[in-house]
User: What shape does this take?
Amino acid sequence: MGRYTSLVLHVFSGTGNSLRVAGWLSELCDRSKTQVVRIGKTGTPKPVPTPETITGFVFPTHGFTAPWVVLRHGLRLPRVKGGAAFVIATRAGSWPGFLLPGLSGSAVFTVALILLCKGYRIKGLRGLDMPSNWMSLHWGISRKYADKIIERGKHNIERLAQKIFSGGRHLFSFNNALELALGIALVPISAGYLLVGRFALAKLFYANWKCNSCGQCACDCPVGAIIMKGRNVKKPYWTFACESCMHCMGYCPEKAVEASHPLAVILYFISTFSLAGVIGKWLISVNPGAVILGSIVSNRLIQLMLNYAYILISLFLVYILFYYLMRIRMVNRIFTYLTLTHYYRRYHEPGISRKDYTNKDLFSEKDRTSSR
Ligand SMILES: Cc1cc2nc3c(=O)[nH]c(=O)nc-3n(C[C@H](O)[C@H](O)[C@H](O)COP(=O)(O)O)c2cc1C
Assistant: This one.
């Protein structure tokens, strides 16, 4: 494989796009020289690279940055002395008659910065368009258009791999400059996503009445965030560890996993209520002696912390109530008919099956064509 003797790929993937990209890279390098580290599953060994190894991070963009599970994985890597690395964030491409690119924002730069601090030398950065998988927001992309986007993605990866694996760099490009500028501008949104958004999105998932309690979603969840709850009839329950990666929704054989839009509206109103402000005013009004306490609560930082705790606790409590209400068939049907995902087409990368998530090696291009 040119300049390097082995490739270590750290991969996280919800609906298979990033897994597909990792598969291409492993084909282009040499499958026998590729080692795969699955991000998200605890206990995966983290190989220490030699100067002849090149390490790659491949993952989806979430909220214009890298998913928390990927950042955490990077932060936990051991320090190395000068191993080469590259970072690829797949992003939401769509096809309204032409390739409309997604925006990976700060995703590759944040992970690259972590790797730099760990002692890696960065050789390549790229936001790569693959079919958008955000099915809580929009219907899944059709097979015809997904194939067009995937084909372009493959072409771009071939060019990138050729350059990097032969010892070159891919750092300065118009695409990277634009992503960096927009990524910096969008930092407040990305921070909001990591601190609050991902928790709120996790709590929108539920199983509709078609769920037959098979437990596949819990068993396959890439981050182990779903538990089967219930004494007699068990139903999936999404914990705060959920990354909203859409694996459960994309692969459920019954199309039973939904993201509730009515609940999103309810959660929005509940979580935007400023609890800290109300407590501060109430303390001062009921007891003038509590002015000091009231002014402490009015402190901006304390207000932020109180409101943050309030948002997380209210998400947790409302979701528990929602979860038990969804066990009542009639209520489940009403919420499901009001939920857009019920009408949406599901998406997962066409050639990636459930078993590809647990394969020791990545699939080959041969496997992909035979699975079509
Ligand atoms: C919760 C969530 C947030 C997303 N945020 C973005 C985003 O900010 N920008 C973007 O271009 N794509 C975004 N996407 C789309 C995915 O990054 C993209 O479809 C990716 O290829 C999915 O890869 P995977 O199948 O390996 O998970 C988002 C998807 C999800 C589910």
